[in-house]
Amino acid sequence: xxxxxxxxxxxxxxxxxxxxxxxxxxxxxxxxxxxxxxxxxxxxxxxxxxxxxxxxxxxxxxxxxxxxxxxxxxxxxxxxxxxxxxxxxxxxxxxxxxxxxxxxxxxxxxxxxxxxxxxxxxxxxxxxxxxxxxxxxxxxxxxxxxxxxxxxxxxxxxxxxxxxxxxxxx
Length: 170
Prior knowledge:
- This protein is α/β, with parallel strands linked by helices.
- It has two domains: 7-112, Rossmann fold, CATH 3.40.50; 115-168, Rossmann fold (3-Layer(aba) Sandwich).
- It has helices spanning 15-27, 52-56, 65-77, 93-105, 115-126, 139-144, 146-153, 163-168; strands spanning 7-11, 40-44, 82-84, 111-112, 132-134, 157-159.
- The strands form two sheets. It has a four-stranded parallel sheet, with helices on both faces.
- Helix 3 packs parallel to helix 4.
- The longest helix has 13 residues, at 15-27.
- 25% of the residues are buried.
- The model has no long low-confidence stretch (mean pLDDT 93).
- It comes from Kineothrix alysoides.
- Keywords: Isomerase.
- InterPro entries: Asp/Glu/hydantoin_racemase (IPR015942), Asp/Glu_race (IPR001920).
- Pfam families: Asp_Glu_race (PF01177).
- One of its GO terms (molecular function) is amino-acid racemase activity.
């Protein structure tokens, strides 16, 4: 990654997840002085982004993708060219497909990091002997089948809590 790249973080989808992501960027940057750190912009507006699980569970018809898109546009306008959304549930197809379509239609040059793909790359690279992967997630992520489908396609056996535990032990 060159110094000209600026990382953008769509924050507020779990405000602590956003801060944790920013911290991981800083902790994993080789820097001897402040100026050696990668430029990073985070916009965190949790009050503006509807609950992802509620949308996926059909409790609301308001797709959070549209507010996420507005924040992505702001990050782009501020100079971000690599953007991450530190929220598994936001990567569910009914949300992420709207975001991806918007980027494509606007001919955006932004690179949007796919969290699920990155998790699978991490497992493959650092734990090549692993074939079964346990997944703990929000109810929306569980219902969407996001990890089940992606892990299965990558050749892994995805293991989840029982449906009873997933629904009743929150």
